[in-house]
Amino acid sequence: MSTLTLCGELLYPGTKVIYTGRPNFFIDEVEKNITLRTIEIGAYAYTQLWELTPLTIEEIREVADGFGDELGAKIAEATARNPSFFDIVLRPSMLPVVETI
Amino acid sequence: MSQSPLLKSGLKLDNYVRDLPQRFNKDKLGGTNATLKETFVDPHVQRRGDSTRYPLSTVLAEWLVDSSRRQLAITAEYGRGKSTAMLKFCTDWAMRYVKTGGSEERIPLLIELRGQNPAESDPLTFLSAWAARYALNPKQILNLIEGTPSCGACIWPT
User: Fold this and answer.
1) How much is the pLDDT for B115?
2) Is the pLDDT higher at B99 or at B22?
3) Would you say residue B2 has pLDDT above 50?
4) Is B20 within the bounds of a domain?
5) What is the average per-residue pLDDT within B27-54?
6) Which has fewest Cβ within 10 Å: A41, B45, B53, B81?
7) Number of domains composing chain B
8) Residues 68-87 of B with CB under 8 A from A
9) Which helix (H) or strand (E) holds B70?
Protein backbone atom coordinates (compact mmCIF):
# COMPACT_ATOMS: atom_id res chain seq x y z
CA MET A 1 0.00 0.00 0.00
CA SER A 2 2.84 2.38 0.87
CA THR A 3 4.43 1.94 -2.55
CA LEU A 4 1.10 2.76 -4.17
CA THR A 5 0.86 5.91 -2.05
CA LEU A 6 4.43 6.76 -2.99
CA CYS A 7 3.52 6.37 -6.63
CA GLY A 8 0.80 8.93 -6.04
CA GLU A 9 3.45 11.35 -4.82
CA LEU A 10 4.86 11.39 -8.35
CA LEU A 11 1.68 13.05 -9.60
CA TYR A 12 3.20 16.36 -10.50
CA PRO A 13 1.14 18.68 -12.69
CA GLY A 14 1.34 17.35 -16.24
CA THR A 15 2.11 13.80 -15.13
CA LYS A 16 -0.30 11.05 -16.04
CA VAL A 17 -0.53 7.74 -14.23
CA ILE A 18 -2.39 4.51 -14.87
CA TYR A 19 -2.67 2.10 -11.99
CA THR A 20 -3.60 -1.49 -12.63
CA GLY A 21 -4.32 -4.23 -10.14
CA ARG A 22 -6.83 -6.58 -8.62
CA PRO A 23 -9.91 -5.03 -7.05
CA ASN A 24 -9.51 -7.08 -3.87
CA PHE A 25 -6.11 -5.52 -3.17
CA PHE A 26 -7.93 -3.00 -1.02
CA ILE A 27 -9.76 -3.84 2.20
CA ASP A 28 -12.87 -2.02 1.08
CA GLU A 29 -14.21 0.72 -1.18
CA VAL A 30 -13.27 3.40 1.35
CA GLU A 31 -9.61 2.39 1.36
CA LYS A 32 -9.60 2.16 -2.43
CA ASN A 33 -11.19 5.57 -2.84
CA ILE A 34 -8.80 7.21 -0.38
CA THR A 35 -5.64 5.56 -1.72
CA LEU A 36 -6.44 6.21 -5.37
CA ARG A 37 -8.11 9.57 -4.71
CA THR A 38 -11.16 8.70 -6.75
CA ILE A 39 -13.14 11.77 -5.79
CA GLU A 40 -12.69 14.77 -8.08
CA ILE A 41 -12.05 17.87 -5.96
CA GLY A 42 -11.19 21.12 -7.67
CA ALA A 43 -8.00 21.04 -9.71
CA TYR A 44 -6.40 18.21 -7.73
CA ALA A 45 -5.38 14.97 -9.38
CA TYR A 46 -7.95 12.24 -9.10
CA THR A 47 -8.33 8.72 -10.42
CA GLN A 48 -11.08 7.43 -12.66
CA LEU A 49 -11.84 3.76 -12.06
CA TRP A 50 -12.32 1.31 -14.92
CA GLU A 51 -12.77 -2.42 -14.90
CA LEU A 52 -11.31 -4.72 -17.53
CA THR A 53 -14.16 -6.81 -18.90
CA PRO A 54 -13.84 -10.57 -19.42
CA LEU A 55 -13.15 -11.74 -22.94
CA THR A 56 -16.14 -12.62 -25.07
CA ILE A 57 -16.24 -15.98 -26.80
CA GLU A 58 -15.26 -14.30 -30.08
CA GLU A 59 -12.26 -12.65 -28.40
CA ILE A 60 -11.25 -15.94 -26.77
CA ARG A 61 -11.31 -17.53 -30.19
CA GLU A 62 -9.19 -14.70 -31.61
CA VAL A 63 -6.62 -15.01 -28.81
CA ALA A 64 -6.54 -18.79 -29.08
CA ASP A 65 -6.02 -18.65 -32.84
CA GLY A 66 -2.76 -16.87 -32.10
CA PHE A 67 -1.46 -20.17 -30.75
CA GLY A 68 -2.08 -21.88 -34.07
CA ASP A 69 -3.39 -25.40 -34.62
CA GLU A 70 -6.94 -24.05 -34.90
CA LEU A 71 -7.01 -23.80 -31.12
CA GLY A 72 -9.68 -21.11 -31.34
CA ALA A 73 -12.14 -23.41 -33.06
CA LYS A 74 -11.34 -26.21 -30.65
CA ILE A 75 -11.89 -23.97 -27.62
CA ALA A 76 -15.15 -22.65 -29.04
CA GLU A 77 -16.30 -26.22 -29.55
CA ALA A 78 -15.21 -27.24 -26.03
CA THR A 79 -16.96 -24.23 -24.51
CA ALA A 80 -20.19 -25.10 -26.29
CA ARG A 81 -20.01 -28.62 -24.83
CA ASN A 82 -18.97 -27.53 -21.34
CA PRO A 83 -19.93 -23.98 -20.30
CA SER A 84 -17.81 -24.12 -17.15
CA PHE A 85 -14.78 -24.37 -19.42
CA PHE A 86 -15.61 -20.81 -20.45
CA ASP A 87 -14.83 -19.63 -16.89
CA ILE A 88 -11.27 -20.86 -17.37
CA VAL A 89 -10.53 -19.62 -20.85
CA LEU A 90 -12.02 -16.15 -20.41
CA ARG A 91 -8.71 -15.35 -18.70
CA PRO A 92 -6.15 -14.80 -21.47
CA SER A 93 -3.39 -15.97 -19.13
CA MET A 94 -4.97 -19.44 -19.03
CA LEU A 95 -4.86 -19.97 -22.78
CA PRO A 96 -1.16 -20.88 -22.94
CA VAL A 97 -1.93 -23.54 -20.32
CA VAL A 98 -4.83 -24.85 -22.38
CA GLU A 99 -2.67 -24.83 -25.49
CA THR A 100 0.04 -26.95 -23.87
CA ILE A 101 -2.55 -29.44 -22.58
CA MET B 1 15.35 24.54 -26.63
CA SER B 2 12.76 24.07 -23.92
CA GLN B 3 13.32 22.11 -20.74
CA SER B 4 11.48 19.05 -22.02
CA PRO B 5 13.76 18.09 -24.96
CA LEU B 6 16.82 18.76 -22.78
CA LEU B 7 15.61 16.38 -20.09
CA LYS B 8 14.66 13.76 -22.64
CA SER B 9 17.90 14.04 -24.56
CA GLY B 10 19.88 13.27 -21.42
CA LEU B 11 18.15 9.96 -20.93
CA LYS B 12 19.64 6.76 -22.26
CA LEU B 13 16.47 4.85 -22.94
CA ASP B 14 18.08 2.22 -25.20
CA ASN B 15 17.71 -0.71 -22.79
CA TYR B 16 14.16 0.26 -21.91
CA VAL B 17 12.95 0.66 -25.50
CA ARG B 18 14.61 -2.65 -26.43
CA ASP B 19 13.14 -4.54 -23.49
CA LEU B 20 9.49 -3.65 -24.11
CA PRO B 21 9.18 -4.98 -27.71
CA GLN B 22 11.29 -7.99 -26.73
CA ARG B 23 8.78 -8.93 -24.04
CA PHE B 24 5.72 -8.27 -26.17
CA ASN B 25 6.82 -9.21 -29.68
CA LYS B 26 9.43 -11.94 -29.23
CA ASP B 27 9.33 -13.68 -25.84
CA LYS B 28 7.41 -16.95 -26.05
CA LEU B 29 4.51 -17.56 -23.72
CA GLY B 30 5.37 -20.34 -21.29
CA GLY B 31 5.50 -23.71 -23.00
CA THR B 32 4.21 -22.45 -26.34
CA ASN B 33 5.61 -21.00 -29.54
CA ALA B 34 3.27 -18.00 -29.44
CA THR B 35 4.07 -14.47 -28.38
CA LEU B 36 1.90 -11.85 -26.72
CA LYS B 37 1.80 -10.00 -30.02
CA GLU B 38 0.31 -13.03 -31.79
CA THR B 39 -2.33 -13.61 -29.13
CA PHE B 40 -3.29 -10.06 -28.15
CA VAL B 41 -6.76 -8.63 -28.66
CA ASP B 42 -7.59 -5.07 -27.70
CA PRO B 43 -9.15 -5.35 -24.23
CA HIS B 44 -12.39 -3.62 -23.29
CA VAL B 45 -13.20 -1.75 -20.11
CA GLN B 46 -16.32 -0.46 -18.42
CA ARG B 47 -17.25 1.87 -15.58
CA ARG B 48 -19.17 0.72 -12.56
CA GLY B 49 -22.88 1.03 -13.22
CA ASP B 50 -22.42 1.26 -16.97
CA SER B 51 -22.61 -1.95 -18.98
CA THR B 52 -21.14 -0.36 -22.10
CA ARG B 53 -17.82 -1.90 -23.14
CA TYR B 54 -15.27 0.59 -24.40
CA PRO B 55 -12.06 -0.38 -26.21
CA LEU B 56 -9.20 0.28 -23.80
CA SER B 57 -7.19 1.78 -26.65
CA THR B 58 -9.88 4.45 -27.12
CA VAL B 59 -10.03 5.22 -23.40
CA LEU B 60 -6.25 5.56 -23.27
CA ALA B 61 -6.09 7.72 -26.40
CA GLU B 62 -8.68 10.13 -25.01
CA TRP B 63 -6.99 10.19 -21.61
CA LEU B 64 -3.59 11.00 -23.12
CA VAL B 65 -4.88 14.23 -24.66
CA ASP B 66 -7.04 15.16 -21.67
CA SER B 67 -5.55 18.29 -20.10
CA SER B 68 -7.23 17.70 -16.74
CA ARG B 69 -5.50 15.89 -13.87
CA ARG B 70 -7.61 12.77 -14.36
CA GLN B 71 -5.62 9.58 -13.76
CA LEU B 72 -6.76 6.05 -14.52
CA ALA B 73 -7.04 2.87 -12.49
CA ILE B 74 -7.84 -0.35 -14.29
CA THR B 75 -8.85 -3.26 -12.14
CA ALA B 76 -9.50 -6.90 -12.98
CA GLU B 77 -9.11 -10.31 -11.43
CA TYR B 78 -5.89 -12.25 -12.02
CA GLY B 79 -5.02 -13.28 -15.52
CA ARG B 80 -7.44 -10.96 -17.24
CA GLY B 81 -4.71 -9.08 -19.10
CA LYS B 82 -4.01 -5.94 -17.07
CA SER B 83 -0.24 -6.25 -17.23
CA THR B 84 -0.31 -7.30 -20.87
CA ALA B 85 -2.47 -4.30 -21.76
CA MET B 86 0.03 -1.95 -20.11
CA LEU B 87 2.95 -3.72 -21.77
CA LYS B 88 1.21 -3.30 -25.14
CA PHE B 89 0.60 0.40 -24.45
CA CYS B 90 4.27 0.95 -23.62
CA THR B 91 5.52 -1.27 -26.44
CA ASP B 92 3.56 0.76 -28.97
CA TRP B 93 5.32 3.86 -27.65
CA ALA B 94 8.72 2.11 -27.77
CA MET B 95 8.18 1.08 -31.41
CA ARG B 96 7.33 4.68 -32.33
CA TYR B 97 10.32 5.91 -30.31
CA VAL B 98 12.67 3.63 -32.23
CA LYS B 99 11.15 4.70 -35.53
CA THR B 100 11.04 8.45 -34.92
CA GLY B 101 13.88 8.92 -32.43
CA GLY B 102 11.75 10.17 -29.60
CA SER B 103 9.72 13.11 -30.83
CA GLU B 104 7.54 15.09 -28.44
CA GLU B 105 5.57 12.16 -27.06
CA ARG B 106 5.18 11.44 -23.39
CA ILE B 107 7.49 8.70 -22.18
CA PRO B 108 5.55 5.91 -20.46
CA LEU B 109 7.35 4.33 -17.52
CA LEU B 110 6.15 0.79 -16.89
CA ILE B 111 6.69 0.23 -13.18
CA GLU B 112 5.60 -2.97 -11.51
CA LEU B 113 4.98 -2.23 -7.85
CA ARG B 114 5.03 -5.89 -6.96
CA GLY B 115 8.81 -5.71 -7.21
CA GLN B 116 9.10 -2.66 -5.02
CA ASN B 117 10.31 -2.65 -1.45
CA PRO B 118 7.60 -1.28 0.93
CA ALA B 119 10.39 0.35 2.94
CA GLU B 120 11.12 2.75 0.10
CA SER B 121 10.13 6.05 1.54
CA ASP B 122 10.83 8.72 -1.05
CA PRO B 123 10.24 9.06 -4.80
CA LEU B 124 13.93 8.80 -5.71
CA THR B 125 14.44 5.55 -3.80
CA PHE B 126 11.16 4.30 -5.19
CA LEU B 127 12.40 4.83 -8.75
CA SER B 128 15.92 3.54 -8.17
CA ALA B 129 15.24 -0.19 -8.37
CA TRP B 130 13.17 0.23 -11.51
CA ALA B 131 15.74 2.52 -13.15
CA ALA B 132 18.60 0.15 -12.31
CA ARG B 133 16.94 -2.59 -14.32
CA TYR B 134 17.38 -0.49 -17.46
CA ALA B 135 20.67 1.19 -16.47
CA LEU B 136 18.84 4.49 -16.15
CA ASN B 137 19.77 7.28 -13.78
CA PRO B 138 16.89 7.54 -11.24
CA LYS B 139 17.57 11.23 -10.67
CA GLN B 140 17.12 11.87 -14.39
CA ILE B 141 13.88 9.90 -14.35
CA LEU B 142 12.62 11.93 -11.41
CA ASN B 143 13.58 15.14 -13.19
CA LEU B 144 11.70 13.91 -16.24
CA ILE B 145 8.56 13.25 -14.20
CA GLU B 146 8.83 16.58 -12.39
CA GLY B 147 9.70 18.67 -15.40
CA THR B 148 8.01 17.25 -18.47
CA PRO B 149 4.72 15.69 -19.45
CA SER B 150 5.31 12.01 -18.76
CA CYS B 151 3.13 9.12 -17.87
CA GLY B 152 3.51 6.03 -15.79
CA ALA B 153 1.81 2.71 -15.73
CA CYS B 154 2.02 1.38 -12.20
CA ILE B 155 0.99 -2.17 -11.53
CA TRP B 156 0.21 -2.62 -7.89
CA PRO B 157 1.10 -5.74 -5.90
CA THR B 158 -1.29 -8.66 -5.94
Assistant:
1) 61
2) B22
3) no
4) yes
5) 92
6) A41
7) 1
8) 69-86
9) strand B70-75
In a domain, B155, yes or no: no
For strand B70-75 and strand A16-21, is the pairing parallel, antiparallel, or unpaired? Answer: parallel
> Contacts of residue A53 in chain B, CB cutoff 8 Å?
43-46, 53
Per cent of chain B over pLDDT 70 is 82
Task: Report CA dihedral (A37, B142, A50, B133) to the nearest 10 degrees.
Answer: -130
| ipTM score for this prediction | 0.85
Global pTM value: 0.87
Position B93 in a domain: yes
Tell me whether residues B72 and A19 touch, CB distance under 8 A. yes
Domain, as residue range, for B19: 3-147
- Chain A residues whose beta carbon lies within 8 Å of the beta carbon of residue B53: 53
Hey, which residues does B46 pair with through a beta bridge? A51
Give residue-wise pLDDT tens across range B92-107: 999 998 888 766 788 8
Burial class (CB in 10 A: 0-12, 13-18, 19+), B54: middle
Phi, psi for B55 (deg, rounded to 5): -60, 130
Please judge whether A16 and B122 are an interchain contact, meaning their C-beta atoms are less than 8 angstroms apart.
no
- Asked whether residue B117 is domain-assigned, the answer is yes
Which residue in chain B is spatially nearest to A23 when comparing CA positions?
B75
